[in-house]
Amino acid sequence: MDYDLVLHDVQLVSAQGVRRATVAVADGKVADVLDAGTRPSAAEHLDAGGLYLLPGLVDTHVHLRAPARPDRETFRSGTAAAAAGGVTTICEMPTSEPPVKSGRTLADRAVRLQPDALVDYALYGGAAWENRHEIAAMAEAGAVAFKTWLHAPALGREAEFTGLSCPDTGRLHEVMREVARTGLVHALHCEHEQILAVAGENARHQHGVPGAVHAAARPQVAEDASVATVLALAAATGARVQPVHVSSAESVVLAAEARARGVQVTVETCPHYLQLDEKTLFEFGSWAKCNPPLRSAATVERLWAEVRAGRVDVIGTDHCPYRPEEIAAGEQDIFVSPPGLPGLETMLPILLTAVHDGRLTLPDVVRLTSARAAEIFDLPAKGRIAPGADADLVLVDTGRQWTFRPEGFSKAAANATFLEGARFTGGVVTTFSRGHRVFDGGHIVGEPGHGRFVRPDRARVAGRRTTT
Ligand SMILES: [Zn+2]
After folding, report:
1. What is the torsional sign of CA 354, 355, 361, 367?
2. Would you say 327 and 338 are in contact if contact means Cβ atoms under 8 Å apart?
3. Would the CA dihedral through 419, 423, 429, 431 be positive or negative?
4. Distances from the Cα of 391 to the Cαs of 4, 16, 63, 67, 269, in angstroms?
């Protein structure tokens, strides 16, 4: 057979291991994985010179907000940043205006975003009390999962969070039961509303640098108490829950204990909770503000131990773009600036640097950034390099040493002041989305409109539904 593209002399990385291979692509799919040295005929040949080849990343946690806030990020700039970061599937959170709160808003958004998409995208639906009767319709429209914030929206942002926020545990119980009926994953922002309210009030009267005030306003107990509640509700409802951007090792342990009892729980963390600690928050204030906040160095070390032990399932970026002026506004009063950091372009370099430093292996990186996410979200064409899978491929150079500058393809790239001067070892050389180059040698070479809306596998999801 004649292939479209053959990649020679790659070190193919899967969640199981690394092997030298030749990878053949046809019609946007991986057609064959052949022994190293095989020379099949093909329209195009690429000699990878022994570079590592990973499945394209499936980023489980992205906020581009398109089409609502083109001043912060467009779908074009955000998916370009994804391509540059080796991310070939983004799972876009339901934060937009209007938020994704119904079957119709989800279907509309899927169509509206497509012409700007450089890589594939899946969409979360919001799940809350006020839109609980739309949960089945969002699943029908192709939602990849549901997302609920367990704290109330910030003052002034209520409209953005209609259908997304559910601080009331009694109501959450009902919402979770609805989500369980769809068979899809229920992703939850776990911070306990009442603990945040009291700690936040106390922190306002506290003296100290703005970053320390933010840390005091959102203590780890708020996260752990919220995760514990979610696990109890998941046990009762049969929901498949995924606490997201977990910063607390104790929360990971709670989830692992629940999983051992049969609760369907998976855990997501983010690169910044592993790479940075609260010293960065204290130094950079609103520029390093995220929710939950960056934690102590000791907590970061314990979280690393949980990641290495395999008790964290996925790492997603929580890419959160804002205009620099919005973040600068919090330099005196950190409560007035929005939370969130850019991450699409830095996640893979951060994790490759962790491999270089001996904290992870390359198969760990594949498991955490694509393979496990594709299993959890029932995306069988993603997250693996095997015949029949989409040819979403990332060639990386694990030896490249470079110094970070806050610049890139995301409109929010300049916000990463807290990484300025950071030393990285490892970077993306070429990203392929379904066999097409979308990023190569430092440049975006893909076209908007190449990306497609991705929905989870219907039959697999159907098998996961609860019937109560
Ligand atoms: Zn988020």
Report:
1. positive
2. yes
3. negative
4. 11, 19, 25, 28, 26
Q: How far is the CA of 334 from the centre of ligand 1 (A)?
A: 19
Question: Helices 249-260 and 297-308 sit at what angle, rounded to 10 degrees?
Answer: 30
For ligand 1, the distance from its centroid to the CA atom of residue 189, given in whole angstroms, is 8
468 alpha carbon – ligand 1 mean position (Å) = 30
3-state secondary structure 289-328: CCCCCCCCHHHHHHHHHHHHCCCCCEECCCECCCCHHHHH
CA 136 / ligand 1 centre spacing (Å):
23
The 10s digit of each residue's pLDDT in 158-174 is 888 999 999 999 999 99
- For 184, the 3-state DSSP assignment is coil
Q: Which residues of 121-131 are buried (b: 16+ CB within 10 A; e: fewer)?
A: bbbbbbbbbeb
CA of 338 to the centre of ligand 1 (A): 12
> Of all helices (H) and strands (E), which one includes residue 269?
strand 268-269
Q: Determine whether 442 is exposed, middle or buried from the number of CB atoms within 10 Å of its CB (0-12, 13-18, 19+).
A: exposed
Integer Cα distance of 161 and 388 in angstroms: 39
**Which tens digits make up the pLDDT trace of 108-155?**
999 999 999 999 999 999 999 999 999 999 999 999 999 999 999 888
CB burial of residue 77 (10 Å; 0-12, 13-18, 19+): buried
For residue 93, the CA-to-ligand 1 centroid distance in Å is: 7
Angle between helices 210-217 and 193-204 (to 10 degrees): 150
Domains of the chain: 55-386+454-462 (3.20.20.140)
Q: What is the pLDDT of residues 262-294, one digit of tens each?
A: 999 999 999 999 999 999 999 999 999 999 999
| Residue in the structure block whose two tokens are 């699409």 | 344
- Which residues have CB under 8 Å from 5's CB, separation 6+? 24, 25, 42, 43, 44, 45, 46, 391, 435
Distance separating alpha carbons of residues 225 and 329, to the nearest angstrom:
31
Per-residue pLDDT tens over the stretch 189-203: 999 999 999 999 999
Dist. CA 337–CA 341, nearest whole Å: 12
